[in-house]
Specification:
The chain is built from 19 helices and 28 strands. By secondary structure, it is an alpha/beta fold. A nine-stranded mixed β-sheet has the order 14-13-15-16-23-22-21-18-19. Strands 5-4-3-2-1-11-8 form a seven-stranded parallel β-sheet. A six-stranded antiparallel β-sheet has the order 12-24-25-28-26-27, covered by helices on one side. Helix 8 runs antiparallel to helix 13. The two termini are 30 Å apart. Keywords: Glycosidase, Hydrolase, Metal-binding, Zinc.
């Protein structure tokens, strides 16, 4: 690595500052007899791998007793790999503390909301907020760093492993004490704390910070949204602080090392704060066939694209420390198995969406433990079959094309507001059964994905100038400086679309006292919200069904007839559509155009969507949530005037298209995510870098799971 990202502002346009494409696999030499090590290293080298990652779960080996360190096993494994030209990324092993530590200090265990401490025998069972656990984390990190300070084969570090994936929350005594300290430093006085949390509601005020409790759900009913918001802010703070302890030690020991983290569940981490700024780059583990929360999309290729586009919005390009390579399982779940050709195709899609390095999980499967059927590149019988062949092909291709790929960012014509920790958490504190901003955004992302339109997620603080259209999906917390960014974007010709409920709460989760959407957004959009209300979800029989499924209060659903009577419809252009989830009745300024109006019941004729000209562009306001039909109608109306066009005309179903680019080149990534051949009738002229630079002009044929990277002319 060179010219690191440290101290740079997180941006969706950042690239990983590296002079090689890292490709390899997580490797666990402690899981096999040493007699396997050399042939493992030899096969990795033949596959074109240049790096492995190791030791993230090996604290018990590295420090078998307090203060007694033993690095011999990993020293020998690293040396063996080094003889075959393979470097090592070491990991701090703090996701799995050894049993001697939890026996000596049971107070470091996480505690769930029912008061049950977590147990040894799994992972992530210790509380990252605990000062005692932090002390031991620093000790093992310092010992490892000092031992490997001058080892030429150790090139970088991963902090911990998938922080907060298993269980981000804790209700331990340590968490409570640290939370109280956090609040005292944040607010200074309990008067300010009580004002922020609304202490005059339900007599929830405090006289001192040591009286503050942790927000437990249904204890017996709901805590204040401000209380919950600050608890999750604290969890994010504690997570960043825990990692910062380790990063400080690693950087002081050897400044030439790169440092990253491999994120999994993405919970209770503020990606635009210290957590990301401490790192050279971020890593995202991607298992396209695993993510249940996205499976409603129906296609794991779309799931992968959405997941990585969301992640790229946090801080730009990334590496993938764990890429699904085969069947994966733990005792309670399992994934589908990638078919021949899919391993390479999924890896290529990760690169298309911003990966500047990739490691296949894992080199070989374990024969014991909770992941015995999590398959790797090599099978249980020590044979490398089609997965090895595909990994080898991918590694060879990426090594050959690194000078073309590295230094390019992913094109976005349509940007969706994302990557904001406070808005993500604010929705959770008071969801009232409504879709989250991300749930709403998925509809626009998938519309663009299916049509080959360059789309992704980006924070409004970021550089919006490369976009053509920017959509804000009902961010309830809004800052006036973001309005200034939207105005500047529109004045230069951009199209801004603001969703319902945006700007309706302040930073303490209080409803604002101005008419929604707040002074600055009202002025920009030329609208005011006069009334609002809840609507049934599209296809639902009753208003409160979503609340029941979400675990909220059990409220008998409305009778279907009543739900039908309260359906809201609107006219946009020559279409009449049904609204879903939420409605707002708007009043508009004289210079604001009404582009859609409610068309039934008492609201007939009232504005639903508006457009106001700002400079060379427009600001559109929506008084409802997206539905598939509304998304299509808006795209048909707004995309042509915004200059949004598909990257490829007449994109066939089952084909994904993405572009990476910089000032010197444009690379069009095309992948067929079906097992059947696909043909594209019109591809921009260029040369296919995955086919020996063969010229492409006009049509392009792809085999099942086939891939192409077209370097465009001009």
């Amino acid at each position: 690595m060179s010219d690191k990202n440290i101290a740079k502002t997180p941006s969706a346009w950042n690239t990983v500052k590296t002079d090689r494409f890292l490709v390899g696999a997580p490797h666990y030499p402690e899981h096999v007899d040493e007699s396997y090590w050399e042939r493992d290293a030899e096969r990795m080298a033949k596959a074109g791998f240049n790096v492995v990652r190791m030791a993230e779960f090996a604290w018990h080996i590295l420090e078998p007793r307090l203060g007694t360190f033993d690095f011999d096993l990993f020293d020998r494994a690293i040396a063996m790999l080094g003889r075959y030209g393979i470097d090592t990324i070491m990991c701090t092993p703090t996701a799995t503390p050894p049993r001697w530590l939890t026996v000596a200090h049971p107070e470091i265990l996480r505690v769930d909301g029912k008061g049950r401490p977590m147990s040894h025998g799994s992972r992530q069972h210790c509380d990252t907020a605990s000062p005692v656990f932090r002390e031991h984390s620093r000790r093992i990190t310092r010992a490892m760093a000092e031992h490997y300070r001058d080892n030429p084969h150790v090139v970088g570090w991963q902090t911990d492993n998938e922080l907060n994936t298993s269980m981000p929350e804790s209700y331990s005594k340590a968490t409570l004490s640290e939370f109280q300290i956090f609040l005292a430093e944040k607010y200074g006085t309990t008067g300010k704390l009580n004002a922020a949390w609304g202490g005059d509601f339900w007599a929830t005020a405090y006289d001192s910070f040591d009286q503050v409790v942790l927000p437990i759900e249904f204890g017996p009913t709901f805590p204040s949204p401000g209380h919950v918001q600050d608890y999750h802010r604290f969890l994010a703070f504690a997570t960043a602080r825990f990692q910062h302890d380790q990063v400080e030690i690693l950087r002081a020991t050897n400044p030439s090392w790169f440092v990253f983290h491999n994120l999994g569940g993405l919970r209770d981490i503020d990606f635009r704060g210290q957590f990301t700024k401490d790192l050279d780059f971020v890593g995202y583990d991607i298992y396209p066939m695993l993510y249940d929360e996205f499976q409603r999309i129906g296609n794991h290729a779309k799931v992968q694209a959405l997941h990585l586009d969301i992640c790229r919005g946090f801080s730009g390009n990334y590496i993938v420390p764990e890429q699904q390579s085969g069947f994966g399982s733990q005792p309670g779940f399992c994934t589908l198995t990638p078919e021949p050709g899919e391993l390479r195709r999924m890896a290529m899609s990760s690169v298309a969406h911003g990966a500047d390095g990739l490691m296949f999980f894992r080199w070989r499967p374990a024969h014991f433990g909770a992941e015995i059927y999590w398959m790797g590149i090599i099978d249980h019988d020590d044979v490398g079959r089609h997965r090895y062949d595909e990994a080898k092909q991918f590694a060879t291709e990426m090594t050959a094309l690194k000078d073309k790929i590295l230094g390019t960012y992913v094109r976005m014509d349509v940007g969706i507001a994302g990557s904001d920790f406070d808005n993500q958490e604010a929705h959770k504190t008071y969801s009232i059964g409504l879709p989250s901003p991300q749930d709403d955004a998925v509809l626009l992302h998938q519309y663009c994905y299916d049509r080959g339109i360059a789309c992704g997620f980006i924070h409004p603080e970021d550089d919006l100038s490369k976009l053509k259209l920017f959509y804000v999906p009902h961010w309830v917390m809004w800052q006036d400086e973001w309005t200034e960014k939207l105005q500047a974007f529109a004045e230069q010709g951009g199209t801004v679309v603001i969703g319902a409920r945006t700007g309706t709460r302040d930073e303490h989760n209080h409803v604002i006292r101005q008419t929604a959407p707040g002074t600055s957004l009202s002025k920009l959009a030329g609208v005011r919200v006069e009334d609002f209300g809840r609507l049934a979800a599209p296809g639902a029989n009753g208003l409160f069904e979503v609340m029941e499924r979400s675990g909220g209060l059990v409220v008998p659903p409305n009778r279907p007839a009543e739900s039908q009577r309260r359906t809201r419809r609107f006219k946009i252009g020559n279409q009449e559509l049904t609204a879903g989830h939420f409605y707002e009745n708007l009043s508009v300024d004289a210079d604001t155009e009404i582009v859609a109006a409610w068309s039934n019941r008492y609201a007939d004729g009232l504005p639903m969507a508006t457009s106001r000209k700002v400079g060379k562009g427009h600001v559109v306001y929506l008084g409802t949530y997206l539905t598939p039909e509304l998304t299509a109608a808006l795209a048909e109306r707004l995309f042509p005037t915004a200059g949004v066009q598909p990257l490829v005309d007449d994109l066939p179903a089952g084909v994904e298209v993405t572009m990476r680019m910089n000032d010197e080149r444009k690379l069009l990534f095309i992948q067929n995510y079906t097992d059947q051949p696909a043909g594209l009738a019109a591809v921009p002229p260029g040369k296919n870098l995955l086919d020996d630079g063969k010229p492409v002009a006009g049509g392009l044929d792809l085999d099942g799971y086939g891939c192409a990277i077209i370097e465009l002319e001009g």
